[in-house]
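Appendix B: complex inputs.
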Amino acid sequence: MEGITKHFGNVIANRNIHLELHEGEILSLLGENGSGKTTLMNMLSGIYYPDEGQIYIHDKPVTISSPKDAFENGIGMIHQHFKLVDVFTATENIILGLEEKGMLNLKRAAKKIKEISERYGFEIDPNQKVYNMSVSQKQTVEIIKVLYRGADILILDEPTAVLTPQETDKLFKVMRNMQKDGKSLIIITHKLHEVLEVSDRVAILRKGEYIGDVLTKDADQQSLTDMMVGRAVSLNIDRPKAERISERLRVEHLTVKDVEGVKRIDDVSFTAYSGEILGIAGIAGSGQRELLEAIAGLQKLEPESRIVYLDPETGREKVLNGMDPLKIIHSGVLLSFVPEDRFGMGLVGSMSIADNVMLRSYRRGKHNPFLDRKFPKALATRIVNDLEVVTPNVDQIPLRRLSGGNVQKVLVGREIEQNPSVLMTAYAVRGLDINTSYTIYNLLTEQKMKGVAVIYVGEDLDVLLELCDRILVLCGGKVSGVVDGRAVTKEQIGLMMTKVGGGE
Amino acid sequence: MLHIAKRAGIPAWKAWLIRGGAIVLALIVCAIVTMIVTGLNPITVFKTMFDGTLGSSRRIWITVYRIAILLGISLAVTPAFKMRFWNIGAEGQVLIGAFAAAVCMFYAGKMPFFQNPDVPLAVKNLIVIPCMVIASLLAGALWGFLPAFFKSRWNTNETLFTLMMNYVALQIVKFMIAYRDVKYPWSSNGTVVGIFNSDQKLGAYSVGWLPEVAGTRYLLPAAVIGVLTVVLYLYLKYSKHGYEIAVVGESERTAMYAGIKVNRVIVRTMVLSGMICGLVGCLLVGTDRTLTDTLVDGRGYTAVMVSWMSKFNPIGMIFSSFLLVFMQYGAKEVASKPELGLNHSFADILTGIILFFIIGCEFFINYQLQFSRSKKREV
Amino acid sequence: MWDFIISFFPRAVMQGMPLLYGSTGEILTEKAGNLNLGIPGIMYVGAISGVIGAFFYEQAVPKEQMIGILAVLIPMLCCLLGSLLMGLLYCFLTVTLRANQNVTGLAMTMFGVGFGNFFGGSLIKLAHSEVPSLTFATTSDFFGDGKVPGWLAYVGIGIAILVSLFLRFTRKGMQLRAVGENPATADAAGINVTRYKYVATIVGSMIAGLGGLYYVMECAHGTWANEGFGDRGWLAIALVIFTTWRPSISIFASILFGGLIILSEHLSLPLGVKELYKLAPYVVTLIVLIIVSLRKKRENQPPQSLGLSYFREER
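Resulting structure:
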């Protein structure tokens, strides 16, 4: 790839990038979130078209203006967000888009899929419907889809983000099998130890620009971090111990079923204390979302469940079962919640910062049918100043136009401004750069020291281990253990994530 | 290579300029089509349209009245659309409101009290007209409530639900018109209802007719809609309800998260929509003083487009309504000249053309066309 | 009783066929993710285009010299062409220009119905007809005798079966469903989303247009009257939901709807009550709509991206 540039509106996602991939190598593409890795790869796979620049394969210039062109040039990409049709089977998804001769023959395709699986060591049922699959199974379908088309160049976009350490090891094994088969692989990631473990060479992007490449054997964590962030960032997260610790939220036998009647949360019990950060670890989709939503009053609870809130002022117990968010607010429980999918829940993309801040407070002045916009505007201005949100204004520009980090700051800022006594966050730093992530960590710790019970659902185990006082590990909707954040090791948690009670 | 990219944003004046350009283009195409079909000079045709809609003070009043009605229905569907509730049932909601008002007007005229010539008309109307308004509000509210209730409970497809409800309303009205009630038949021939309470000799003469203001019966409905426009503008922009509607429209889960009762907002907003529609129905019956099954005449659907092409902005809807009323009734005026051999459906064709242009032009507001530079170098 | 069924059933089929054509066309369209509310208008345009073809053929050639194949082919080709252009317009606006599908559909229906009635009215004037309608007895005789379903009815059933098989068992059908479910995925798999949407919608429009022609030629036995087609287009859309996107079921469901329509003519009811009885198809659809939504079966849900425009570089 030579001189690749891509704009989105006024934002430059990639500026003048040169990148080389050799035959039979695994190349890591490293960079912080928002550094343009995925955009760059999307141009290789035909999802985007570069504004400037030229792509060469085996020294021949090629034009890739559609995913079809990419396939024809032997390029296949495994996206971070799986591109699968839910109501189709694995086989149907894999052969989707292929122009083979003759009638549709699903049996023959299934046989070929079995062959590929055996060659590289996948486990898959070709007739399973995608909506019944686990994340790792879906990823397998994606990889086989690319191999089925005979791709020589595979691009994996953050493949390990949704996997357990064990599943990650399995994936790396498969990747090496493919490499031995003569295939070239690009793996996009921001996890340094994985880069060092699996790849031959590392290429680094920063803020849309190409910084350089190094052979993996010549690199270590520190040097890669320096190249990635431009300056050394302390990896240590401050973790003071709070003095006043008391019970704040007690969850007993919590059980939640989804629409199909499957238990998403199964008999979960724990206690959250004021003055501590309770981390919640688990593979994506182990019930983290349902757990937080259940506490926030957004899920239907099974009858044996009990959620008890202990009022910090009076010390009295309040049972939150069966309350909707409005009732919880009215009963005086100060519960803040930063959900994982910001625009899907929690924020309104087309509204300004002030109007989004108003979401929590617009009911003020009970008997006035009209909105008070002055107060939210002042609050929004305060959040913008305190958290250094980069925005041209607070009351005009739609929130969706701000970058992910700034959006998250607005959300976290709003929730903290409520003076909560319980603060729940789900993947609060997902998609954020390192500096913003640290801002968020500090905010959470600050809240903890103020006596708030903080619940932090996270995916990065390193962060969980450094930030949280205690860590609750979920596996398939069940609690597989609660451990001391200062004493436990990463491997122990990894094991607990895959099977209940694995840590003991 | 031609390439499409999404615009980051566009100044409002530019967006309206594009829309204005599209309308001008559409008018040119309409002129060409008219020329081909009629063989007339388009200027003559436009002059006929102009005379037909704005040529005399009486015509201006009728046009104002038609604009008001279309605007009223457009206002009614707007809160629901902001909520992303695809209510295409305005047709039925207006009709059932009109029906309810007509029932009040008709049966009041048969009651001894209203037939008593000694009771002043003002007193009679003071009783009947509020009854008509309330009845039409209730009927419209019911028509709005049903789809919203099922949508909020079981996520029943509202587009189809409201569509079916249109025909339910239509058949009820047709039934009433055709039904030969032994004592008080609505129509003498089963198809046409005459003017209600129109017999000057009877005491019930003109009971339930909306009063004339400043010598015209069209001023009152126009004024009501004018007030409604302002009220709805304030409601959507500055009230807590309006804010809730916007949040629900953008993301139901965010609304739930904020403690907004989504189902309640959906039902409340649709009842409001239905009530405004019902009120418009009442204005129609009170001004036209009769009930026909073509009373609404597709304006329930036209209103959907008016609301959408004005970006749900009540002020924009005034202009859109004017444009569509001018085109539709102007074209009908053209079609009414027997020497041209046209029929009134010609108006729908012209309106369709204008709508296509306005619908299409949104693309140029949201996207921009780019020419890939690498290609340029080669050329 | 038996006589009643004998006379009733064929007429129910005849009343049902326009709905079957319409719903089959709409199902194909919706499977590609396009919610085409313009179908009622398209059926009008299909009908009037066919009528125009038939009219000029009847004008040009004396009755005795009319050739069956031409008398059938000319209206059919005109009808297909008319509805093709409507489908093309819908696609251009919603797929290429990414306009709102609901609004575009409603505008197309307004335009289409106006178009049909305008040219219908013009033809009636041209023919100096005494009554406000236009009859092509000769042409329609080639389509059928107007008492039992003619060959075009079997074509309609054939098309419904073919579409059903196509969607379920062919590669192209599978890819089409993928486009309607998840266009981004289909795109990433190298499927030309735009082309699939265009082809499915245009073919769907043409099928629906034939329904309009069928109505004129068989149900009305060659008589065009303005507004005669009525609200059948909307009933066809109702059928799509009624059958949960299955053309094969639509064959039976359309006959059921046809039966409801025809029953009102068989029963001797007072005028007013008859109007009330005509409520039945709408109320039945409403009830089915509610029941389907009560039972949340995954396979019965509408295509996931229905009603949404697709733009590849959306972020």
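Chain C touches chain B through 55 residues (CB under 8 Å).
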